Amino acid sequence: MAFGVLESNASEQPAGTVFLEDSQDGMHTILVPSPSNSPNDPLNMSRIRKELYFLTLLFGACVTGALGPVLVPAFGIVSQTFQTPLSNVALLNGSLILGLGVSSYFSAIISDLWGRRIIFVLTSILLVVSNIWAAVSQGYESLLAARVFQGLAMGPCFSLAGTSCVNDVFFLHQRGRRVGLWNFAVIVSVNIAPVISGYLIVDMGWRWAFWFLAVAFAVGLIMVVFFLPETKWDRDEVISGGNEKTDEKVAVETAPDVESVTPWKKICGVQHLQFASAKELLPSLVSPILMLRHPVVIWGCIMWSITFTWVIVLGTVADQIFGAPPYSLDPTQVGLVIGIAPLVGSALGTLISGWMSDLAAHYMSAFNGGLYEPEFRLVVIVPSAITMTVGAFGLGDAIDHARPTMVCCVFLALINFGVGAGCTGIVTYTNDVCMDRAGSAFGLAMLIKSSFAFGLTFMLNNYYATKGPMVFFSTWGGLTLGICLTTVPLYVFGKRIRSWMGRY
């Protein structure tokens, strides 16, 4: 038993358990998965190509993260513009969230069949078009439809970027920091978007927010074309660890095999892409749902739904809280409150948890004879659960007693610190357990989360208005704590569960 993780009764190590540290000298990290000798293997990409690739993923995460809450400071203005109730305006976010869930589910499936690059190119084009559509929309129904298509185009930047795309290019011991940075890009952009859009909306109108986003997505499309090659690579998964070591400062050197690659494939970045047959599509559409037989996938779906939905909850009621007495803030000020404090909390949460996740994996593996268990990643859930719970109850009390805005900001920062840390822990753990199925697992989690959040948009504003801030935030805080506590038995019995379920 390593650090409370119970050993399995099986003779073989379950999926996810690998030798990460050289138990002989403890100074070198074993490369997992083991890279091949092919020059087309994404693991063998040069350092600069990997960084440009990852920068493209981060830029996409930033812009798509900003797209969701871009209208948050202007809910009241949009309501007046189209003469529609506030609950209908909230549906503009809800429809995008639902579209995002559907897109996340199908993006992971299609990318496994036909590659990552084609999905990113097509959805990047759709993001440019749908933002122009939103900017020129003349009615509520038109804007609502544009938001649906925006959500449908956002999926790859969520279900693939932090899971399959990271796993394709980076080794296991590098993924915690990369996932942390990806979470940082998503959550920080979600929080900073209302600040920027608040100023834009006051000075130029809400339509200009979509014009600026259209330009940003056009830049993202150019980056995808030039810096995001096809990274889908069929390899035999190395379960017990590879036999190559790295000193972290030394680049991986391989002896590439000579392979015949046509020039157009090199230009398009698809030199090793192989398309699956159409008859494989239907079974692939169903296979992610079958992953719900795995307790780890169920845990990941529920945890992601509760944790990330905090961002949506706060954005939905922000104008209702701070735009009304006793605060009576204008859209710019609402954007600052719901943007700056959560920005600080999210930044610290994602960056610290990503570093902490890799550090825990490194040292706990070293003290475990070099054997790495994915459950070591779950230690970051502890600070996440504490800060989200304290922040939720504290924020409810602060608003209920009309405490100064700065006090509310402190609790908003605590909540978002927990959200950032929790999301990093969830993604890194499911990545290491599900391995090549991580994209499908996360796509399923996004679909469930989005359906859950979509349903909430119909009742959040009314629930807050009827129950008040204390009951509203205490309800969500209690639910968050209860779900986070399920991580304890998962940590203890996780290895046995993985052994019992086998690999999907």
TrEMBL record:
Residues 53-504 form the Major facilitator superfamily (MFS) profile domain. The keyword tRNA processing does not apply. Keywords: Glycoprotein, Membrane, Transmembrane, Transmembrane helix. The chain crosses the membrane at residues 52-78, 90-111, 118-136, 148-172, 179-202, 208-228, 296-314, 334-355, 376-396, 402-429, 441-464, 470-493. The keyword Membrane applies. One of its GO terms (molecular function) is transmembrane transporter activity. GO terms for biological process: export across plasma membrane; xenobiotic transport. One of its GO terms (cellular component) is plasma membrane. It is found in: Membrane. It is a multi-pass membrane protein. PANTHER family: MAJOR FACILITATOR SUPERFAMILY (PTHR23502), TRANSPORTER, PUTATIVE (AFU_ORTHOLOGUE AFUA_6G13880)-RELATED (PTHR23502:SF20). This is Major facilitator superfamily (MFS) profile domain-containing protein. It comes from Fusarium oxysporum f. sp. raphani 54005.
